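Protocol step 4 of 5: obtain the predicted structure for the target chain.
Materials: sequence only (see below). No template structures provided, no constraints applied. The aim of this step is simply to have a reference model before the mutagenesis design in step 5. Sequence pasted as it appears in the construct record:
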Amino acid sequence: MGTPLSTSHLAALTGLSLGAVGDHLRVLLDAGMVAKRRSGREVRYWHTPRGAVLAAGEPVPTDVRVDEVRPD
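Step 4 output (structure tokens):
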């Protein structure tokens, strides 16, 4: 998830329902693995630095903060 994606786009890509995608995103948000930002009528999601490292299957360096956000 290198490019910020909306819930509906993620649902279309994965074949999951909007509700299922929303449930997964809530867990990932709570764990600090993704961040979100409103863009017009949509909310877009992307990996945090920690989420990107974990998605790549690598150990998380101790200097990667959960609260880092993507710049505008």
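Step 4 remarks: The helical segments are 7-14, 18-30, 49-55. The longest strand covers residues 34-39.
Proceed to step 5.
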